[in-house]
Amino acid sequence: MRVPEYDAIIIGGGSVGLPMAYFMTLKKWKVLVLDGAPAPGQGQNKAAIGGVRATHSDPAKIKLCLDGLKIFSTWHQEHGTDIEWLEGGYCFPVYREKEERILKDILPLQKSFELDIDWVGPDRIRELIPGINEKGLRGGTFSPGDGQVSPLRAATEFWREGRDRGAEYRFNEPVTGLSVKGGRIRGVETRLGRYSADVVVNAAGAGAREIGLMAGIDIPVVPESHEGGISAPMERFFDALIVDMRPGPEGKTDNFYFGQTVNGQVIFCYTPIKPVTGKNRSCTSEFMPVIARRLIDLIPRLKNMLIRRVWRGLYPMTPDGIIILDHVREVEGFYLSVGMCGQGLMLGPGVGLTMASFIIDGKPLIDKKAFDSLSFYRDFDSKRSEALK
Amino acid sequence: MQEAEEGMVRDTSAECVTDDTIICRCERVTAGEIRSEIRAGIRDMNVLKATLRTGMGACGGKSCTELILKLYEQEGVDLSEVTLPTNRPFVSEIPLSAFAGVEEGGGE
Amino acid sequence: MIVDMNMQEKDRFRITSHPIIPVVKRREIRFSFNGKEMKAYEGEAVTSALFANGIKVFGHHRRDNGPQGIFCVNGQCSQCMVIADGIAVKGCMTVVKEGMEVRSCDTVPVLPEADKVPGFKEISTLDTEVLVIGGGPAGINAAIELGKLGIEILLVDDKPELGGKLTLQTHTFFGSKEECYAGTRGFDIARLLTDTLGDLETVTVMLDTAAIGAFYDGSVGLYGKGGYTLVRPKAALVACGAREKTLAFPGCDLPGVYGAGAFQTLLNRDLIRPTDKLFIVGGGNVGLIAGYHAIQAGIKVVGLVEALPECGGYKVHLDKLRRLGVPVLTSHTVIKAHGGEHLDRITIARLNSGFEPVEGTARDFEVDTLLIAVGLSPINELYDKLTEFGIESYKAGDAEEISEASAAIFSGKIVGRGIARSLGYDVEIPPGWDATAQTMKSKPGIAVEYKPERMELESYPLIMCVEEIPCNPCVDSCPRQSIKIHGDPIMGLPVFEGDCIACLKCVDICPGLAINLVKRNYDQDRGTSLLVIPFELDDGDLIPGRKVNTVDMEGNPLGHGSIVDVRNPLLIQREGLFRSKSPMMTL
Fold first, then answer.
1. Does A307 touch chain B (CB under 8 A)?
2. Which chain C residue has the Cα nearest residue B69?
3. Domains in chain B, please, with CATH?
4. What ipTM, to 2 d.p.?
5. Is residue A20 helix, strand or coil?
6. Integer Cα distance of C574 and C568 in angstroms
7. Does a structural domain hold residue C533?
8. Domain of C548?
9. How high is the pLDDT of residue A384?
């Protein structure tokens, strides 16, 4: 049984853990990443739709995602590898007064963070989304700086870059225990042995709660499952990631969203009105018939696109829908970067960057107020909810 | 002498499969590209899907998966180390309209 | 067979007469390919319609402009994608219609602008007791067993007719007569089975319908002519058969390189003659039979290579090819396929014991068609998912284990009854069935030397069956009960014991065409004997009186004779004395 020594052990080699490991290596730390899946990003990262936006209403998320956008959009220049970044923006087409009000109300806040976002009229929406259903179209918001990326490729590239800088990764090796002595973390245990470090980060996504319990810490992260699908490639005809905030007439869907990837595949997902908690990753027969109607109603010409694959992934949800970035007071050296609520892909690089700074240099990169709002010790029941999730 | 079996692929050596041989027909991925990833340590075929798009095409890996496993063998990798691609619906592609019960001839 | 040089261009790729398959007249329709108007026959697949018009390159791949043609013609490989009336489809699974506009899929398809919101309909859902996925020999037989008990079955098949690969098989079947129709031609078996199924009231058949996914909630998604349907079965049988394996070598992706099964589909189902000459990789039954089918359709088989030191298929199939002059090279393989837009040449080489090509043995052949017959893989993706989701699931036929159709027929019967029992029906599985099923799956035994028997009789059969395979229709065919199998009743080698009345029933029934008949003192004046051989090729050249060269069962020259008559079967007059060793002749 090996007992190697590391500056940090990151539990979870996915959307959050991989960027974090990379940023830690930039600060010359010796890092070990552990994951139960066979390869990087094979947890929930690969189930992500790929959308990356800074267009939120929560200040912390806005900042973290702005950092993420910068990292994704300059990746190819910086590293020479392709993560299929597409800077097509996000577009929220609006058909009801309700959504128009919500979106217009948060514009001032978003602009105060210098987000490039505006309300545009129906003509502009039609330009952005050829073939969109014009009946009742009131306009919408468009934020050209947002975009989409390939989750699989981003994960693989973060892994490679970290590996090239000396980070170690052990896959097929889930963490089975945490070693805590005298209120300090000492390391982790797996079926193959013990690994010691004074810093252990919980970036375990859907498995965050189980990891916390290994140190006697109860983290309120509960996975909810969502189904997604993708089409065969076709000629690209829209660049934005489209979000239709309306609940569906069938009474099953809340919002739904979709984009067209760099190679022309339309990738789509909906948020069920009734959340499905649990870790079930098997596809149901309900998904496609429901989302087909929503897609075709919004953009009728999509009816002829061929559907290639469907899947089901997990959103690690917190009670208030806000992520948790913090250190655990009860166990010194134990950090949390969990509860991404289905936005792990877009938050990952920003979270990785700020946590590396927080852990290694003592302070996060985003401002204190924003960072503190993500504390593990906040009141999760305060019913603080985002205007725009 | 090996017994010939109906289901057995007649092996050809690595030499016969040149680097420019197309292995994944749907995405036009060559043996050389795949060997490169194998030599870089990739053992999960789901990662190959991400980096090379093998198995992400129209046929869903029906034609190429076995050939890629053969390449792994030729590179000296024990197949027990290799993770097979995840099996998900659908077995073949169908138009979105079918799922919505779109009436024939409508919507033109 | 002589190619009629006056044949019209339009018929060049169509088979207008065939020694076995009836050529039925079909209605001609018009369609277009890339704007050019062409003719097709109603009901045929787009790929066949294109081939019939000499189009073998359907488009080019968006990534590197590589030319695209067919490979499997079975809905598996997605190589034959074309745009049909604006929608990207698999050409092999799409029926050509009057006025259809077919286009190459050179870049990614463009979504047609259809901007009116259509009306939606609810997806239909049905419940059934047993869902049988696949209507080939295994699936149909399982459905028959279940249907006879009045169990509610839904049988789906993605092709326009039932029978699976039986519909492509022009040769007569092996196995045993009672249990699996030995001695009957494959496509006739398909028709018999379909008719039997049609009489069963609780069996519903959905053709042109594929099972495309299994879901957590225990339903299965079907897609076909009737749109998308969800079925909730109590039990499911996966009997989808097999898909052809591909072989990797430079140029393997060129149009012109495709599966032997694809070739048989074009040839025997759609009566398309894609080429005048071809080469085959693979000496299992699939490759050997494909070669024979090619010759039946007037296509020259330039050669067949097999990487192993011996062909794995039945000796009787191999011998048929040898007798017809096809060079069969074992320990050889294709190492390169050449061509720009289409295959035009191949290079083969000998392999050493490590399967590496031996330097200096490379040889080229100019052919535009290379059939790949290197093995089959079970199609059973749905089985694992169905089981995972709690539906009682079964596999039968090639979907379970690659074997012969006779084994699949048996497998379907056994599994069908097994499903019935698990659903609580009181039905027996006869104790001998399992053993017989295993026998049907047997690989060939060793080949022994042929020794003709009882050559002192006036007439006697030459039963040139020297390799143990599961096959015995000759035994029942003899009205004098003179053909016996000692040892295992299906695997054992037949021997001639008793008398012979020259009824020719055994000559006719042997699926391997391995039985001839001799009438010793046929022409007393000339001192010649009569040899009767089975013949399944075009008989246009065979004029009575014509002299022919004769060969032994493996194709080695043996002398000559002259044709006496051509009927069903053919009669030959041989000159010279019979040698006691090997007086075997065929044409």
1. yes
2. C248
3. 14-78 (1.10.10)
4. 0.92
5. helix
6. 18
7. yes
8. 459-574
9. 65
